[in-house]
Design brief:
With about 725 residues, this protein is mainly beta. It contains 6 helices and 45 strands.
Amino acid sequence: MLPRKSKRVRRAKRRRMSLLRKGTLSLFLSLLLASPSLAAEDPAASDDVYQLPTVTVTADKRATDVQKTPSSITVMSRTKLEDANIDTIEKVLQRIPNMNFSQFTGGANFMSMRGITTSAGTSTSPLVMYLDGVPVDTFFNLDAPLMDIERIEVLRGPQSAIYGKNAMGGVINVISRKPTNEWHGTLQADYGSFNTQRYAAAISGPLIEDKLYLALSGSHYSTDGYMNHDDTWYGNQERTERFKGMLRFTPTEDIDISFHLNYTARRDGYSNLIWGDEPTLDSIANKDDYLHSDIWNMALQMSFDFDPVTFESITTYRTENLDYGIDMLATYGAAYSPYGLNLDCANTGRNNTRKEFTQEFRLRSPDDNKNGIKWLLGVFGGYTDMNIRESYSDMPGTLPGDLLDQALAGMTFPFRMWTNQPSREYTQDYAAFGEITIPLFDKLNITLGLRAQQTHKKIDVNYMGGETYAGMDVPLLGVAGDMHGTKSDSWFELLPKFNISYQLTDDIMFYGGVNRSFIPGGFNNATRTGIDMTYDAQTAWNYEIGAKTEWFDKRFLLNLALFHSAVNDLQLMKYDIGSMSYLSDNAGSARIYGVEVDAMARLLPGLDAEFSFGYLWTRFDDYTHMGNDYSGNKIPYTPDYTASFALQYRHEKGFFARGEVLHYGQLYWSEANDYKRDPVTLLNARVGYEFEPFAVYVYGNNLTDAKYLNYYTATSNYGMMARPREIGVQLKYTF
């Protein structure tokens, strides 16, 4: 029998162990329920070092606390962007739950947001980006200069009632930091794997105190690339130059006028293209391939506070120039050489200019309206000119049986199928919209919104095509020479929105809502016959319920959203056997169900844990094409689930460390669900020392060197390799 003192010691030890287990469990749960979506500003912004700061957003086109805004929003502040080393839109989207982002050749970007996907033929994106008010809804050139940024807001889910512009999947708001009376600036230099170099500089401050301010920034990025190629020492080289400027004028306290200008020049070599669906760093592209793009964005934002209303005007202009060429001779030559066929040409490319002008006027109530009623009224107009000067393909044709027999006998027959599909499309958008939030009683609010959207399009198509056999030109499917066609059409839609929110306590809010979303129809510029030139609009009814909560005196945030979308007339790319072309067309319908969890915990002063999770269940309800019934299959390019976890520590003496895990579940590459990508896990880290005004960091992305495809199309058997492991060092000077 043990002495009494030993029993007390053992009981005390058990209590300590119990407390340790409970503390460990609490820590584990906190780590699991932490999220980058609510990453806040500098910890010093909070009075209590244990509290998470309040984050203000303008998702509803007015300033609100993100935890009091009844919708799913991911916010990345300037501090978060720097801490996570996020310098591209791709890196932003990698951290959004239920989001998949893939890049293809020619500057194309394919996305899936909550199961709503990009259709290549529509040239539009279901996730619309706004660069200081400039809308970007094309799936080409989805790029942004992320220098001197105040924050990035990603509105998850349809936003058609207020934003329009094809915002069926969501909206990305990129908001630059406004210059003030205090001069500040940054110099930065990075060097990493594959001779990757990045240099950036930013400065802002007053030209006339309290009246006129200026902000300027610029950056250079270049890399030799990570792909292997037999004919050159560099891989898939990239080079991007960026410039951004803002001039801000505040003649009185009630007037704020800003002019934004940014320019991006991209000069890339051959892409990370491979043959097949098995990951490899061996490229099949040609060393002479190229991609050149130039993008100008301009925006004039004006705000006039006429108590008790505020009038706002946003005028924008955007122009994109895209020119790329891809030589596929090596690929097709290897495929046909066993038959004794010596090809002399196999290439594809595109040259186009896209110009867009928009104007929006808004009138709204004050953000601090004392009677509790908040309202917003607006009108929108836009004009787009898409001029595709060339969209060409010069590829091996299909051999008739007799020529194939002779080829198999070892004879050589040059044969080609060539096409060019220039077109010019004009789009006019008009909309009137409004939203009102009414407090029914102290804690219950309802929001009603409506947008009337009118879209008119006109296209001129000039299709040129033919085939060449042994030096003889043959008409292509009865199209001798050129085929010219003109088409116009209009789409009108009413897009209602209803939302209800209940503020149970100051720290807990429940909400639910329903809205209708819309992507207008359009035209196929690739049609050879003029038949099936038009595809219809895509629409959906969307439902969401959620909760936003803060716990332990604002030291822990936990948000939950459940959603469902019923989509009709999905816009998908289909192969049309009649014209032997890939055309946009409408499938039947689809159902989408999903859940999203995001959270953040401050475990200790300077120590934050973050977590996000998304799960999707997607199915085609009705989709039949070329005799194949895809009903019941999963929508391609949508991962079953996504997850991210990060742990970050910043000590007051200057030490900084951040580690994060990004995980993407299985996804299918096609509607047939016959090709898939297995789950992918990425590990990133960044460690540094901050000694004002200097800082030095070492970073690593994809530290486990996971090899996986970023995109694959079974039709042509082409894949795009994602980036392998990258390690680098970063130096920064801030004043």
